[in-house]
Design brief:
The structure is a homodimer of 357-residue chains.
Chain A lengths: L4 E3 L4 E4 L10 E4 L2 H9 L6 H17 L6 H16 L6 H18 L5 H31 L7 E4 L15 H10 L5 E5 L6 H12 L4 E4 L4 H6 L5 E4 L3 E3 L4 E4 L2 H10 L4 E4 L5 E2 L16 H4 E2 L2 E2 L6 E2 L4 E4 L6 E4 L2 E3 L3 H10 L10
Parallel strand pairs in A: 4-5, 4-7, 5-6, 7-10, 8-11, 10-16
Antiparallel strand pairs in A: 1-2, 2-3, 8-9, 9-15, 12-13, 16-17
Helix pairs in contact in A: 1-2, 2-3, 2-4, 2-5, 3-4, 4-5, 5-6
Chain lengths: 357, 357
């Protein structure tokens, strides 16, 4: 099992996703500031993994707080939450995880005056978020497996696998692993996903490790492989899903969705409920992170572009709901109109059993 | 003026497009075999530039032939034409240029028994092909300028500029330069164009040199910039255009065409008449070159992908005619039905004056 992020006695252990697959290097992060930096620098990436890492980072920071009173601890905690919330703006799981930690803090504060008890509860909450993420991805895999036919070739963009989550199954790759574990033969075409090359580096590595057949293509080949009839279904992850189903995901996802529609290929989004942001009416309200132009102009430190060239580097784009065939969550599969189906999944977890068909 | 390929007294001088823009290195090729190798290895690329280089290479090889009789020279010449024709399969300008050289050889052979005269005529023919390419691109620029409005932002894919032709204007970038020279303000968004990064490395370099505002994006951002209303028109080059207007061009062109249609953005192909292959009924008959997987898995020699991963690396795709708003040639602008308009341009050069509107 791939361990993306792990709570240990020494600190938070993370696989360094910047150097995979040519190096399998693990970092031991011993302070919450190091965790925030790791999120910002994309040592760890993927919306659910960011959420889990942020929760662990806050738990680590709280446990190291020298505050003698609950009020002192709360000051430290609040500051950590704010800084952690400024690492990456688009993945809503980050804010969801911080909110979970804050709620737990408040709950404990009303029950105890013991700084040590509150610290322990925050570590417990981070562990829970970790465990729940693993379980959510298994559920996504079970629901999603029903949407994949034996012999299908699935195109995926970026990495929405073990490395984008707490580990194990992943979201979009969870659907693929779910189909495989349900006895279906499934092959994958992975977009390489510039500029960070999550597909070429991470998805390829994960799937090869799992003996799932994978072929990597450059992003601009997605149209060509669909035109040539090589893709049966598209499954991608999500960084934030608005109330109407509009989905922010890795830059290029929108392009893949347009191509899938053109070729009448089903286009599925796979994400845990923690990726839903029902406070937003539509995708237009989702903040899109702009990253350093050097990610485009330089590859592993090597300059590829002319000096001083202007570059655009939005990390995400928004796929409008009308291009999405269904959204596969850990509580079941939502279909249009998403404004109703997503709200139903969010409020009524009992729908999970009936929404598989 | 950018000099892509040049006939000199010492040999054929080429700018090495593999190392641009971080190195501006010129190679002096002193044998026809070196020219063939340079085409294969993409020292020089772009359909018109390949045609010009092949013609020069054959002229160079013929001029170095030690054959004492016309028959000996013809043996050498025929062999060189065959090897040169095996360098790259998709760009039809290669075969067109070889055919031009062969026709000239046959014409001279019927007039003279002098090996030296035939050699001189072949050098003359290669020079003519070079000069005609420069003139053709200027004409494309004039015709294309009418299709660009003042203030337009043009998205282009790959490099169809000076570096893709004999030099100077280029085809798709010729349209942009034509608009600029007609007094229009024009900005460019350049797809980086993996795996060879012609956009990031070459188009950005060319346009920056020419003070034309250019912003580079990764290929998977093309949908996003269109969705955000940043693109008014798309202009791309071509490697081969079938009789019905279906166009083979750099991998990813099809994707851009689908996105342009989705956003109701005009999609233009710019290419000289030598890129037309009216012997082919449709794009399905165009041979698509598959290149080494290392172009995808390695960037400037650095391994990015897991060992042994499967990769698809078609160098081109085919854009069907129904996604093409117009084809801008050196003899005028062709519109659907292309089966008629292209044939008319090919046979009747006098249409040029009237087809500008």
């Amino acid at each position: 099992m791939i361990k993306t992020v792990e709570w240990t006695n020494e600190g938070i252990r993370m696989i360094d996703q910047r150097v995979l697959p040519t190096e399998e290097k693990y970092l031991m992060l011993r302070s919450w500031e190091e965790v925030a930096e790791a999120i910002k620098k994309m040592v760890v990436r993927g919306a659910p993994a960011i959420g889990v890492s942020a929760a662990m980072g806050i738990a680590l920071g709280a446990s190291q707080s020298v505050g003698m009173s609950v009020a002192d601890l709360e000051d430290d905690f609040t500051y950590m939450c704010r800084v952690m919330g400024e690492t990456r703006p688009t993945a809503v799981n980050l804010f969801w995880a911080i909110e979970r930690m804050r709620e737990r803090f408040n709950r404990e504060k009303s029950k105890t005056n013991s700084v040590e008890e509150i610290k322990a509860s925050l570590v417990d909450e981070a562990q829970k978020i970790f465990q729940e993420d693993i379980a959510a991805n298994r559920a996504i895999g079970r629901f999603g497996a029903d949407l994949i036919a034996d012999g299908d070739t699935v195109l995926t963009h970026c990495n929405a696998g073990a490395l984008a989550t707490a580990g194990d199954y992943g979201t979009a790759l969870g659907v693929i692993r779910g189909a495989r574990d349900a006895g279906k033969r499934v092959a994958v075409i992975a977009d390489e996903t510039r500029p960070f090359l999550q597909g070429l580096r991470l998805t390829a590595w994960e799937l090869a490790k799992d003996d799932i057949p994978v072929t990597v293509i450059t992003d601009n080949m997605a149209g060509s492989v669909m035109q040539n009839g090589k893709v049966n279904v598209v499954v991608v992850g999500a960084d934030r899903i608005a109330g109407n189903g509009d989905t922010a995901n890795k830059i290029g996802t929108y392009m893949v969705a347009v191509l899938a529609r053109k070729h009448e290929i089903p286009f599925y989004v796979a994400a845990p409920i923690s990726t839903l942001d029902l406070t937003l009416k539509s995708g237009r309200e989702i903040p899109i992170e702009q990253r350093d132009s050097k990610e485009v102009t330089h590859i592993r430190g090597q300059q590829m572009a002319p000096d001083g060239i202007k570059v655009s580097n939005p990390a995400f784009d928004v796929t409008p709901n009308d291009l999405i065939t269904a959204i596969i969550t850990d509580r079941g599969v939502a279909r249009a109109p998403y404004i109703e189906s997503l709200r139903k999944l969010m409020t009524d977890s009992s729908t999970a059993a009936t929404s598989r068909d």
